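Practice problem 4.
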């Protein structure tokens, strides 16, 4: 069993790494007629009723959404991202339910007690700080994903909001299918489904609170001590990771969410005219803290007050 879950973990990590590498490749395809931004020739002013960057609005010439991303609903525009994400999600689900450790009755009962304890007190001193940080970070990453995906959620099929809501409870189990099926929409004209959602995801207060919370989780691990052996209770955490389903799957869930966030973040950067590979790598390379910091620093999109929703 130990060898099987190590092998499955390696497979999941490789799949997530491939997705991270693929996220740096813009989805340009000669078959789908998609051209790089610099080569687009057709220009048109951005309609003022769209949800768009103030910098982009001020520009007198801009590529049309069709030139930037092509027909975003075509299979070519999704490309290998869809396949990699779908395989990673299917593999994660299969591994969590079939191969993860802790399937015996005693371990299942302990998992139930762990879940009860951490819900009752998210910072329980009786649990390893590393596990506490991981479990609480699984509440921050859905906020990050929602803030990245909802600005481009209009006309998406399937709609984004059920998956964003579900991810707060089920993490990548809920978010994975949407990441695989959604269209790539970096155009400034790709807008949220309503103005209230737009205002929330652009508000810097939730971003600031998320960033501060992420720093506290780092402090919890580095300075929290306790919990059984070493920084953040490393020995106690590793024991739980090797023997219990909840800590094991939660850790893998956070790992996968932290890697797959690169693609939505790249799209959001392009939407705001703020993309560079170096920036993307810097934000993604620091799990949880980096994506939360990105939400705080990213340029704002503006919502036209006259837009009817």
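Answer key:
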């Amino acid at each position: 069993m130990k060898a099987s879950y190590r092998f499955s973990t390696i497979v999941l990590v490789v799949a997530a790494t491939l997705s991270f590498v693929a996220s740096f490749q813009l989805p340009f395809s000669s078959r789908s007629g998609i051209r790089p931004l610099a080569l687009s020739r057709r220009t048109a002013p951005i309609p003022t009723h769209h949800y768009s960057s103030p910098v982009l609005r001020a520009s007198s010439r801009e590529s049309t959404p069709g030139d930037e991303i092509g027909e975003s609903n075509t299979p070519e525009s999704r490309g290998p991202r869809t396949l990699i994400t779908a395989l990673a999600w299917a593999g994660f689900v299969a591994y969590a339910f079939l191969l993860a450790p802790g399937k015996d009755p005693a371990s299942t009962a302990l998992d139930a007690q762990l879940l009860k304890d951490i819900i009752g007190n998210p910072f329980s001193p009786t649990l390893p700080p590393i596990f506490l940080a991981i479990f609480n970070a699984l509440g921050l990453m859905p906020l990050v994903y929602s803030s990245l995906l909802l600005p481009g959620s209009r006309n998406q099929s399937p709609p984004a909001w059920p998956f964003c809501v579900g991810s707060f409870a089920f993490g990548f189990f809920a978010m994975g299918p949407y990441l695989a099926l959604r269209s790539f929409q970096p155009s400034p004209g790709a807008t949220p489904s309503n103005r209230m959602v737009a205002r929330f995801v652009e508000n810097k207060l939730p971003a600031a609170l998320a960033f501060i919370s992420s720093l506290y989780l780092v402090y919890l691990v580095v300075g929290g001590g306790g919990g059984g052996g070493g920084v953040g209770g490393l020995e106690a955490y590793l024991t739980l990771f090797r023997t219990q389903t909840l800590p094991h799957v939660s850790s893998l869930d956070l790992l996968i969410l932290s890697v797959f966030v690169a693609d939505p973040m790249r799209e959001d950067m392009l939407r705001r005219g703020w993309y560079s590979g170096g920036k993307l790598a810097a934000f993604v390379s620091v799990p949880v803290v980096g994506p939360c910091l990105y939400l705080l620093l990213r340029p704002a999109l503006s919502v036209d007050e006259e837009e009817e929703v």
